[in-house]
Amino acid sequence: MAALTQSQFAAQLKKYYSFYTGGFIAFVIVLAILEQMGVPNKVLGYLFLLATIGLYAGIGIMSKTADVSEYYVAGRRVPAIFNGMATGADWMSAASFIGMAGTLYLTGYDGLAFVMGWTGGYVLVALFLAPYLRKFGQFTIPDFLGARYGGNIPRMIGVVAAIICSFVYVVAQIYGVGLITSRFTGLEFQIGVFVGLAGILVCSFLGGMRAVTWTQVAQYIILIIAYMIPVVWLSVKHTGNPIPQIAYGQALQGVAAKEKELNDPSTALGAAEATVRALHKEKQLATEEKLKALEEAMKNGTADSIVAEARAKLDTELAELKAAPEQDTKKIAAKEKEIKDLTGPEALKKKLKKAAEGAKAKAGPVAAHAVPFSGKGAEKKLLKENPDATPEEIAKAKAEDEKASNIKRKNFLALVLCLMVGTAALPHILMRYYTTPSVREARQSVFWSLFFIFLLYFTAPALAVLAKYEVYTNLVGSSFSALPAWVSNWSAVDAELMKIVDMNKDGFVQLAEITIGGDLIVLATPEIAGLPYVISGLVAAGGLAAALSTADGLLLTIANALSHDVYYKMLDPHASTVRRLTVSKALLLVVAVIAASVAAMKPGDILFLVGAAFSLAASAFFPALVLGVFWKRANKLGAIIGMLAGLGVCMYYMFITYDFFGGVDANQWWDIKPIAAGIFGIPIGFIGVIVGSMISPAPSKEVQELVDHVRYPNLEGDIDTRAA
Amino acid sequence: MQLTDKHREYWSRNLRLTAVLLAIWFVATFVASWYARELNEIVILGFPLGFYMGAQGSLIIFVLIIWFYARSMNKLDKEYGVHEGEEA
Question: For residue A649, what are the contacts with CB-CB under 8 A and spacing of at least 6?
């Protein structure tokens, strides 16, 4: 292919990927026909899994390479539009594909922080980083820090920060791969993790960035088709309009009307709802009572007996399940896990707390979907409990509501900022802009990246509302004897995703009787829309593509930081090409296996850690990178102080406020949640770079020339920083 | 390598464009979310405006900002003769 010019190359790519897309659609149609002929669902699930992973492996093998520039930056000839698709797949993880719409379903407006944050960050990438990094033209982000600020210390801090952010992120991706594989094939989770890992490795291992790029393009095409088909179908079903992003306004109004009805006890629906809420309230109070007793006992050192009692109760329940004439293996396994997890008073406390919170959430009125930053409902509660409250009491409750609402708003804005700046600082994304043929195409490529990401992100809010409309109108109020098929299917598959219990024994479904896990929304949409199983398989393949592509990009980032920045640049600058690639591949394998082993342990709090990665990246990289281009005076000491201070403040804040590390809410500064710790880290990072630079001499003439070099796409008599 | 006045002018025009687009980004993100409660009073096609901005409106603005930046800068490169050759 080396003889082709860039435009011939682009034309050829277009041809290949058009064929590929057509072929994929044909494959789905063939499977649909097989389904009609009676091939069981499980076989279809396997076919999807094997075919897609096989396809990615095929692309990986075809793109295998022994050339350094091909391995690290795909030979720098990825056309803007294809780099855009690859970035889209690189960017959208399992959390975006499967989790996003569910989060929006559960949290309404407040979940939009993720939609805005994960798209608006590309504005920063476009304006501040992509074109300049492309002109610089080396292999990794620490490369830029090393060249711009000189010496190994800034490079090393960059390597450490890149590894911290990317590693937690890649664990979450591999976890997602395991989940999807196990759900659709019935394999065990741990085996699913390693099957997925094989799929990831087969392409990044042989061909590095080159293979990852062309696989990611293929994965983007699958994931976007898989996301759109069910939503469009659902939109047509509910509104008769095939453009969900426009049509869902109508559904949103329907949802708002239902919310009002459900919260009004004078209507039939509202009255039934109120009875269930009362039951939740009772449960909440009882659990809180138990929690209090436990905490008291923990202080006195007598908690062990309470734990023993709880364990004995679970043991009896397990025995009952096992003694039943028809054994329910799923329930037994769940119970056994519950017993295993009950390790001591702390575990019991966590469990009770979660149960109390769950009951409390269901005991209150439904939150309105489109209303931002809703208060805590103190005024409503007061008027309900005491209709003759004095004006002062009402004013006080109102003030309380407003305060809660303002805190939510503050946190929303802080989170949006952290996600945006974090997006513009995550090495695996920035690295992608090294692969375009020119600065010009790097700029266009950011546009294409956001455009392709935008397609999914501006659809997710529509999907959330359409699903909510379905639940509120067709499920709530239906009879338990005639539940929709998708409800009974999913509640049989996984109680965490869908649980529905007739609490007040009236034979009809009330909203507060349904528990929905966020991931259900995307996974169950095909069934809600009444589509055949083959589309469910397609959605799973899409989720798998999203998780695999992100994991590929991240693994490569970590391995490259270690092999290129640490080994080649710092330890052995005279290493031969062959040796560099061998080291790189070996490290890739090691990192992948470590990440998969961590994921296989099913660590809790994984979602928090992913959110935390954004704050960390934002605080560590963004100030030093941006000032490196826009402020010539920034120097080595500034970069060192800025990066360390930003990262340090951010980690310190998470440490003192997040309960996973033993922190408490009381330590919060201005009520900011730990996930938005970057709001403190980013400004401290900027101040650090500025102060550190001002107290030490200006950078050398060569460095200043480097800055000019990256600022102009083409300068006469220019220096050359391109890496070979 | 010597920068001419023309080069400096190119850079300051780049900075100006960057600042303007950044301001639009700021308004579309932070001002719109800060006033989301108030904007929700306005309803267009069934969408409360504050919600719509967060779900779709701001996203569309982001895409347009980047499109406009790429187009303008690629033109500016040519205007000031700092563009790259065809086959870089």
Answer: A619, A677, A680, A681, A684
Question: Cα(A276)–Cα(A269) distance, rounded to whole angstroms?
Answer: 11
Helix or strand holding residue A473 (H, E): none
DSSP string, A38-103: T--HHHHHHHHHHHHHHHHHHHHHHT----HHHHHHGGG---HHHHHHHHHHHH--HIIIIIHHHH
Residue B52: which domain range? 5-78
Q: Model confidence over A240-271: pLDDT tens digits? A: 888 888 888 888 888 888 888 878 878 877 77
Cβ neighbours of A405 in B, within 8 Å: 37
Residue A466 near residue A248, CB atoms below 8 Å: yes
Q: Higher model confidence: residue A674 or residue A558?
A: A558
Total domains in the fold of chain B: 1
Interface list for B 23-82 with A (CB within 8 A): 25, 28-30, 33-34, 36-37, 40, 45-48, 50-51, 54-56, 58-60, 62-63, 65-67, 69-70, 73-74, 77, 82
Residue type, A632: K
Whole-angstrom distance, CA of residue A678 vs CA of residue A66 = 40
Pairing of strands A498-500, A514-516: antiparallel
- Asked if residue B27 belongs to a domain, the reply is yes
Six-digit token pair at A626?
A: 């941006």
Helices and strands, number each (H, E), in chain B: 5, 2
Residue ranges covered by each domain of chain A = 6-235+412-462+533-711, 263-411
Q: What is the pLDDT of residues B14-60, one digit of tens each?
A: 899 999 999 999 999 888 888 888 888 888 877 888 888 888 889 99
Cβ atoms < 10 Å from Cβ of A699: 21
CB atoms B84 and A438 under 8 Å: yes
Q: A159-163, A359-363, A381-385, A612-616 — which is least confidently predicted?
A: A381-385
Residue B84 within a domain: no
CB contact under 8 A, B62 and A708: no
Residue of B11, B29, B45 lying closest to A416 (CB–CB): B29
Out of A245, A416, A709, closest to residue B56 by CB = A245
**Is residue B48 in some structural domain?**
yes
> In chain B, which residue's Cα lies nearest the Cα of A630?
B15
Per-residue pLDDT of A388-433, as tens digits, reads 777 888 888 888 888 888 888 888 999 999 999 999 989 889 888 8
In a domain, B88, yes or no: no
pLDDT digits (tens, 9 = 90+) for A648-680: 998 888 888 776 667 677 777 887 887 888 889
- Determine whether domain A6-235+412-462+533-711 maps to CATH 1.20.120.1200: no
